[in-house]
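Continuing the batch. This is chain 6 of the set; chains 1 through 5 are on the previous pages. Same settings as before, nothing changed between runs. Recording input and output for traceability.
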Amino acid sequence: MNDNILKLKVDNKDKNLEKYLKPQWSYKTLISIILSLLILIFIVKDLEIDLIKLVTDSSKYLGDILSRMLPPDFSNFSQLFFAILETIEIAILGTFLAIVLSIPLGLFSARNLAPNYFVYIICKTIVIFFRAIPEFIMAMILVIAIGFGAMPGVLALGLHTMGFLAKFYAEDIEHINQGPIDALKSSGATKSQIISFGVIPQILPSFVANNLYILDRNVRMATMLGIVGAGGIGYELQSSFRMFEYERVSAIIILIFVTIFIIDHLSAFIRSKIK
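Output for chain 6:
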């Protein structure tokens, strides 16, 4: 009797395993894949992209450029080091500005915390507006308005990434457990107490993770903003390209890679400590 029951359980497990191992295809999935491929083909045709020419030309010219980039020229390492340091400083200040501005916007862009619908719509519109304008364009406008230097880069990164962080915060807040919030409300807690004891403890891990992601992103974007005159290593990169100093270009790319590599591992270490 026991053997029969055990055999029945094993057979049921095998059937369940076979069920999950089988591809869960459906006609909707197949239609979605076909439509996606058709859309991609249409886009390639509409943009007049010649894939054969792309492969042949890239192999011809890219190989020539790569050969000129070797060996990397670190003869002016101190200049490049201070330029990459300025890039990191721009990214840190821009991220800090984004965090400060996005906290109130994120709180009031969440449906479950906004005091009323009007405030929710206003904050949501501000978030979408700054997220819609690329930091590259914003940096160009600010360079024209206030001149060359680090300040346009800080403001461009801060204002643009404020939109992303506020969106992340609002989405995290909207998906928190409402139990602690309701308990605090029923006990007569104020709005600040609800946020401090009901909201922040629940979103803290994702709050830190999102901030670290934005910092990582801002370091890379600060490099690009330097090309339009917003300071940092981007200016050195642009100058090297203009002077056809490809060996110096490769040295700058290596420095950028090492910087991002270190920041990525530091971020992973910090995230592991707050879980």
